[in-house]
Amino acid sequence: MAGDYAAPLALYEGRVRAEWIDEFGHVNIAHYLTICDQANWGFWTLANAPEDMQARGGHEYVILENHVRYLDELALDTEIRVTTQLLEADDKRCILFHRVWRVADGALSATNEVKMIGFDLEQRRVEAWRPVVRARLEAILAAHAPMERPAEAGLGIDLKRR
Q1: For position 3, what pLDDT does the model report?
Q2: Sequence-separated (6 or more) residues with CB below 8 Å from residue 33
Q3: What is the gyration radius of the CA atoms in the chain, in angstroms?
Q4: 3-class SS at 141?
Q5: DSSP assignment of 80-131, as one string?
Q6: Is 61 helix (H, G, I), strand (E, B) or coil?
Q7: Orientation of helix 131-144 relative to helix 29-48, angle to 10°
Q8: Which of 96, 101, 137, 152 is deepest in the core (most CB within 10 A)?
Q9: 66/106 Cα distance (integer angstroms)
């Protein structure tokens, strides 16, 4: 995937699994994060390609914040696709915006805004991105620059209608 920075990125496709379904017959709220975390991992794999975890020597990421909007139900075995837009990046942080789509009808089922930070697993502390990651983030950011910033990005929780 190195060098393929399509806007938006398509980093996860799959089907809704039985273990994600709650007593109401749809994906439980916690598992929307499970779905989006597959895209987080896909993004991180792209940013580090072709290196695997062992080659990275503990230089990874952690999630600092998540904001999920639940827009439409997902039922068992529904085919889904997650697209990802890189909104911002600096020396040690980045913000991703995921959209979860139902493949059959193209309905947007959820969005997830994520703030990541570079992390050294051995030292257990925040760190700057490795140069290869920083360069890839810059290239992805440049590829995504023409995309419109999602209106929902950066919003918190509010009682006002949007």
Answers
A1: 57
A2: 66, 68, 112
A3: 16
A4: helix
A5: EEEEEEEEEE-SSEEEEEEEEEETTT--EEEEEEEEEEEEETTTTEE-PPPH
A6: strand
A7: 110
A8: 96
A9: 24
Displacement of CA 15 from its chain's centroid (Å): 17
- Name the residue with tokens 């190195």: 2
Cβ pair 117, 96 in contact under 8 A: no
pTM: 0.93
Q: Distance of CA 121 to CAs 48, 59, 61, 134, 155, Å?
A: 16, 6, 9, 18, 30
Task: State which H helix or E strand residue 132 sits in.
Answer: helix 131-144
Amino acid at 5: Y
- Determine the residue type at 95: I
The CA distances from residue 8 to 68, 87, 91, 127, in Å, are 18, 11, 22, 27
Q: Which residues of 127-141 are buried (b: 16+ CB within 10 A; e: fewer)?
A: bebbeebbebbeebb
Check whether 70 has a pLDDT greater than 50.
yes
CA distance between the termini of the chain:
37
- pLDDT tens per residue, range 149-162: 999 999 888 788 76
Q: Calculate the CA 50 to chain-centre distance.
A: 19
